[in-house]
Amino acid sequence: MKRPTMKDVARAAGVSPMTVSRAVSGEPGVSPGTAARVEQAVRQLGYQRNDNARNLRRKIPGTSTIGLVVDDLANPFYALMARSVEDEAHRRGCLVLVGSTNDEPRREREVIAAFTARQVDGLLLVPTIGGHGFLKQPMEGGTRVVCVDRPAKGLAVDTVTVDNRAGAERAVRHLLAQGHTRIAYLGDRFGIWTQRERHAGYRDALAAHGIPEDPALVRHDLRSRSDAAAALAALRALPGPPTALFTTNDVITMGVMGALGPADRVDVVGFDDFPLADRLSPPLSVVSQDPVALGATAAHLLFSRIDGDRSAPRSVVLLTRLIVRGPGQRGS
Amino acid sequence: MKRPTMKDVARAAGVSPMTVSRAVSGEPGVSPGTAARVEQAVRQLGYQRNDNARNLRRKIPGTSTIGLVVDDLANPFYALMARSVEDEAHRRGCLVLVGSTNDEPRREREVIAAFTARQVDGLLLVPTIGGHGFLKQPMEGGTRVVCVDRPAKGLAVDTVTVDNRAGAERAVRHLLAQGHTRIAYLGDRFGIWTQRERHAGYRDALAAHGIPEDPALVRHDLRSRSDAAAALAALRALPGPPTALFTTNDVITMGVMGALGPADRVDVVGFDDFPLADRLSPPLSVVSQDPVALGATAAHLLFSRIDGDRSAPRSVVLLTRLIVRGPGQRGS
DNA sequence: GTGAAAGCGCTAACAT
DNA sequence: ATGTTAGCGCTTTCAC
């Protein structure tokens, strides 16, 4: 059975399609009597307005739809962010298209192209490593863009990030204060902006204590829990193994903690907090960031752009918090 | 600056809009020469086809968009499912609109109405407690629906679930085999189908051992980690406290594990596995289900429906796996 | 308060 | 190989 249209409703109610349009969209100029007859026909036929057709003709531009493009929707961090974005959108009567990029520039382009082809009003983007020049033309066409978690190189748009470098520096400073001098760095691909920042923070802290960075203790490119576990094993097999670890995201932290036992005496600080992180042994300290705040802030920025804000692009930096666990506990 | 249309491209390339349409959509009947000129104009103007307008006119029906409606996108379980669905959709060149219901029937209706107004080809639905009669008319209009995780009462659609009852029964049987007789049940709202099933499995196991259900040991309506922690505290304050716990979802399990210490001697089995669950103490056994398989299976069913499969609705039941950890470890 | 005509951006069907 | 006409489902505009 085909979906009924306004014409069908009009016929059933004995009025013109235009009157149905007005009634269905709650516009003035429909007498209570006709409105009732229209509503009756609507219910009987199970009519629902086709918003795609509507948006095509409406003078008020926009589709009340935004696109959310993240690295990996399955990652709890982005999942929390996505939920927060969705809540803000829902509050505005806006829908959310989602896409994961896997950090592949090619998939990012495909997803974004499909989104803009659907005329999304805006894009909330966790940019991949690749360039983003291809966004220029959609933006001139009216698609608003806001970056979250990482900036997009060479793209003048609002950006919401956290103080990655300072957070990492504080984490490593904490380890140094515990007397550690051989602190390993376990990170994801160096191409990712957050990873470069966190690495810089690691170096900052070491430098402040006059400790040279030992390349043997620095591992990049850890893309999974098993990568991290393998890197840890390699580090511990070193002649001078590290006595403390700094892990730069939740996946790596989990990989490392999964490979450590209660008997292992290493101090670990990880970027990102997660449920039950406080119940592990050896104890795990974390640099905690707030994905919900990240998502909500970015969504607000995007919506104010969609609402017509044409001021210069802003950069919002949210703060991280060091949570020390185990002996030497401090709080913040 | 306004978005260019086919007319603009046609003018720039010195051809008719129809030729642009053919060229842009890769249809035959365009000479290489004109195709090149069109492509040139497209690039210069930054033209992108408006797929909403396109879908309006196309004979091939459909928008290549599906709607995913889950309880809570931030829950790691649904996040994994969502990612899996998105991957399947991406493979088919299909986009995904997401919405969380919070298990509120009203929000579910709003989200679904907004999705169908956008002419989604299908709906992947984790139904709320409420009724779903309102789906009848969209379905007659051609919107395909598949339920995941839970069935929708009184709705004849494909459904993908796990063997909740058997999984719960096996979990509790394991605890009984360890010699426990006072096994507490900590569950979410009883209105949720999975919870009723899991509770039935709990009773099955007890009954098989001739143990009557002790109402004092059964707690429903635990909706957060703190609810679970509070319920646990109440249980332990009982004159005859439980010696083992069965927790019926990841949130409750985390709440309980967060409140227990290594010194606590209780056996715990939880429904749902999660990262590092194997590193906790006291040890945590789990009934593990596979959210990725759940999502992928449901997506496959939905797409075959969208592709025209009109056979009778199917019910697919995936299997859970008991993972025993700590002393008494077995494997499956 | 209601309706007829035109057109949003695109494509099916029929020309040429 | 290319163009013309009509119309998808809706809303704008302007009549009455």
Question: Can you tell me about this structure?
Answer:
Chains A, B: Pfam families: LacI, Peripla_BP_3. Chains A, B: This is LacI family DNA-binding transcriptional regulator. Chains A, B: Keywords: DNA-binding, Transcription, Transcription regulation. The structure is a homodimer of 332-residue chains. Helices cover 42% and strands 16% of the residues of chain A. Chain A is of the alpha/beta class. In chain A, strands 2-1-3-4-5-11 form a six-stranded parallel sheet, sandwiched between helices. In chain A, helix 1 crosses helix 2 and helix 5 packs parallel to helix 12 (291-306). The first copy, chain A, is elongated, with a radius of gyration of 26 Å. The termini of chain A are far apart. The relative contact order of chain A is 0.11. The mean pLDDT of chain A is 96. Strand 2 (95-100) of chain A pairs antiparallel with strand 2 (95-100) of chain B, so a sheet runs across the interface. Chain A binds a DNA duplex (16 and 16 nucleotides) through residues 5-7, 15-19, 21-22, 25, 28-31, 34, 49-59.
What kind of sheet is the major sheet of chain A? 6 strands, parallel
Instruction: Look at the helices and sheets of chain A and give the structural class.
Output: alpha/beta
Shape of chain A: elongated
Radius of gyration of chain A: 26 Å
* Helical residues, percent of chain A: 40-55%
Strand order in the sheet with the most strands of chain A: 2-1-3-4-5-11
Describe the secondary structure blueprint for this structure.
The structure is a homodimer.
Chain A: H1 6-13, H2 17-24, H3 32-45, H4 51-57, E1 65-70, H5 76-91, E2 95-100, H6 105-117, E3 122-125, H7 136-140, E4 144-148, E5 158-162, H8 164-177, E6 183-186, H9 193-208, E7 218-219, H10 225-236, E8 244-247, H11 250-259, E9 267-271, E10 284-288, H12 291-306, E11 315-318, E12 321-323
Parallel strand pairs in A: 1-2, 1-3, 3-4, 4-5, 5-11, 6-7, 6-8, 8-9, 9-10
Antiparallel strand pairs in A: 10-12
Helix pairs in contact in A: 1-2, 1-3, 2-3, 5-12, 8-9, 10-11
Chain A binds a DNA duplex (16 and 16 nucleotides) through helix 2 and helix 4.
Protein name (chains A, B): LacI family DNA-binding transcriptional regulator
Pfam family, one (chains A, B): LacI
Keywords (chains A, B): DNA-binding, Transcription, Transcription regulation
